[in-house]
Amino acid sequence: LHTAYRRQRQMCIRDRSIGSVNDNAVSHIYYVPESAGSNAELKLRITEFEGSGKVRVYKNDEYVGEFLDKGDKTVIIPEFDEEELVKITFAAEDCKFTLLKISLEW
Description:
- By secondary structure, the chain is mainly β.
- It has one helix at 2-15; strands at 20-23, 26-31, 37-59, 62-67, 71-80, 86-105.
- Strands 1, 2, 3, 4, 5 and 6 form a six-stranded antiparallel sheet that branches.
- Strand 3 (37-59) and strand 4 (62-67) form a beta hairpin.
């Protein structure tokens, strides 16, 4: 019994997704790009989404997109300067979501 319990516990821990849970709140992520660019792709993996609302995405207070459900998402970031502090804001409205992965590619 002890061995079976230990195996089950290991499987649960190993299979669990860990991410940032956001519930009707505003959250921020900051980037400092090494070079200037335009039309960068902000790639997101949303593993959970509950509620009938949406999440608006902003770059330095400029609206750049939104999402309404879970899955892999891409939001285009129009322009940024070299070594500019880029603030990405997620504003959840009537929903709860889990952000598992985020990357900025150009």
